[in-house]
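Morning!

This is the sequence you dropped in the shared folder:
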Amino acid sequence: MRSWWDHDGPFAIVLTGTGCRDLVLPVRLPQGPARTPVLEHYLADPGCWHKIDLVRHRDPGALGGWRYEARLMILGPGYTSQSTAARRAAAAGLSRRGGVDVNVSNLAVVSIPTTGVAADGLRATYVARSGPDADRLAAERLRQRRRNRALQRSRRAANPHQYQLSARQQQRADRRRAAGLPPVTVTTPTGPRIATAAGVPVQAYRRDQLSAGYRRLRAQTAADGAARTRAGRTRAQTVAATIVATHGADLVIEAADLRAWAARWGRGLHAFTPGMVVAALRHETSKIAALGGGAGLVRAGTRHTAWTQHCLCGTRTPKQLHHRRHHCTTCGLAGGRDLMAALVGAHTVLTEPSAPGSARIDWPAARTTLAVYGVDVINERLQGAVTESTGHHRPHQRTCVGARRPPRSPGHDGRGRRARRTTGTVPPTTPDETHTGTAPERRDAHPDCFNTNNGPRNRP
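The structure's back. Tokens below.
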């Protein structure tokens, strides 16, 4: 009977120091014609220095709850497919300059040609969540809440002496004591955790007894969170590639700290993940900038620019945060606030690209753009971007505490229509207290909060 010790295949990993014999682990290479160029890139040159990194991923379906794999790395550039190289080369040839306005729930990009005037010179892209995306996210949040409650019940049932009785359970015990009845053993106390006067738990969470079902459900939650993060990163890469193919790699974005938005709009950030989109956009533009196709994604300070507070004609039109429409009484421009801000940002210049504070708006060039395209054409292009990207959205309605939600209209199934995300001819974008993962340990305030941002970060 053959075993790993007897493997003599073409590619294997030899682990020495495991006993009297070396342990030989066979390596299964990816199959299929599409994977052949990848294998040739990494294995064709025998003189290239290789490094093998053994990693593990949490997989509840695997034996032991972990899936192990070996990653082969080379001392050189990563693999880039022919289609990606051709797309980046075409984007490097675009002579365009655009502005990017990023928000909690959407991203707007508007670009203009740097030389000459074309029929489709003014291009606009508006990326936002559609109706099905919102429904899918609501289902995921409901499932996560149910899992958190199940985890909390399991922990309380396994450690009943670390929790107090709730007010209702205590009243029941007092009534039985007053009536002379024997006390009832509470298997799952629902009160607060027993803690000191300073609020510190008497027993640390990592010392609790955990059932096998708790560990399986916790592992499944972590695996689903990691898969959701990888899916969001893939979607961000697709959106970034579409934007760069349409507007080029010479883009200007406001220098805003997205982490500061989490305190107020945490749920919105989790739904749209603008940080992933901006990171993917920065990566894609840097690759094209290396080919000589623009300056990449440049950050501009907001103190001297204030894109959302100005019109293309130079008139200052103050708007509060809840004002989502732009209307200028001087020139007549009217449209979405975000797209209009991106159009103003396309005319931002920096005397020092590495210094966001040196950003200024080139108002003569902005007025020239307004005169060349006209108010009607600009309004039509910007409105077309919003119409084709947003589709049908259910309006957000504020309800009082205890009030019922208004009934849906007859025939409404709760689903929205998915529309194209770009205009023009571009195709649509399609605490763990005992955590021992490959990423550095993160200690959260509550043991049932999971860090799911441990996906692969290296991209070609």
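Headline: The mean pLDDT is 80.

More detail when I'm at my desk.
O.
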